[in-house]
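Quick one:
INPUT:
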């Protein structure tokens, strides 16, 4: 349960948590709930994961009650971003999710829509989403679901990513941001003026057309937000 909830008219719902433990519980509840709604409405739940700390923060889904209550056989898993490496490579976001979550719950192997690691980045992007780096031409891609880049500013250089229109077409977008080092950038993304330097903040471009945007924050990441820390 979040410490506080704020709804920002432009940026969606902000859920601020006392610590990572509480954030993980709220995140698991949220995912279980949207999974249930989606299965009821569409018969399937399609979810796109990123890498980084997200998978560890989703770990409670492997435990009771979610391991029994979530309809895992109806899940279809995609990657919003992936590094172009072998699926058993330590840099692979697929491996991260498989080891930390997907091997511990009964998701069907045929429902894991990972990249073809035998193909080039360009070929692999044709089958497969979010490495949206500032000022990169990939941000202008509007006619493809998935694209690739070969010049990531962070290693490894070759990555595959969902495009902005695909992300913004989702029914639900959850952004998970934790830790003090993210406080400044998060303040700019949520409360920045939208001036010339705002094009460096690609997270500001995540604006679901009709879907719901929820930010899962710990209090360290939220420490510079005026809306939740009034002076
Ligand atoms: O493959 C990657 O490089 C990751 O997917 C990356 O995009 C990650 O999601 C962010 O760097 C946030 O990572 P943290 O949650 O660890 O801050």
């Amino acid at each position: 349960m979040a410490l506080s909830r704020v709804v920002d008219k432009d940026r969606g719902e902000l859920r601020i948590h006392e610590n990572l433990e509480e954030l993980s519980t709220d995140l698991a509840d949220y995912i279980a709930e949207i999974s249930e709604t989606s299965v009821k409405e569409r018969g399937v739940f399609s979810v796109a994961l990123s890498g980084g700390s997200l998978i560890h923060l989703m770990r409670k889904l492997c435990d009771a009650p979610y391991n029994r209550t979530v309809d895992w056989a109806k899940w279809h898993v995609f990657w919003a971003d992936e590094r172009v490496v072998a699926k058993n490579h330590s840099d692979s976001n697929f491996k991260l999710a498989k080891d930390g979550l997907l091997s511990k719950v009964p998701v069907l192997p045929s429902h894991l829509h990972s990249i073809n690691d035998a193909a080039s980045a360009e070929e692999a992007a044709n089958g497969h989403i979010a490495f949206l780096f500032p000022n990169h031409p990939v941000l202008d891609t509007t006619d493809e679901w998935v694209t690739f880049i070969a010049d990531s500013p962070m290693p490894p250089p070759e990555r595959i990513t969902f495009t902005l229109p695909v992300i913004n077409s989702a029914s639900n977008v959850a952004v998970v941001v934790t830790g003090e080092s993210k406080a400044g950038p998060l303040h700019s993304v949520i409360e920045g003026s939208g001036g010339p330097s705002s094009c460096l903040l690609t997270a500001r471009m995540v604006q679901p057309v009709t879907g719901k945007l929820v930010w899962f924050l710990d209090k360290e990441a939220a420490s510079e937000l005026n809306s939740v820390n009034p002076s």
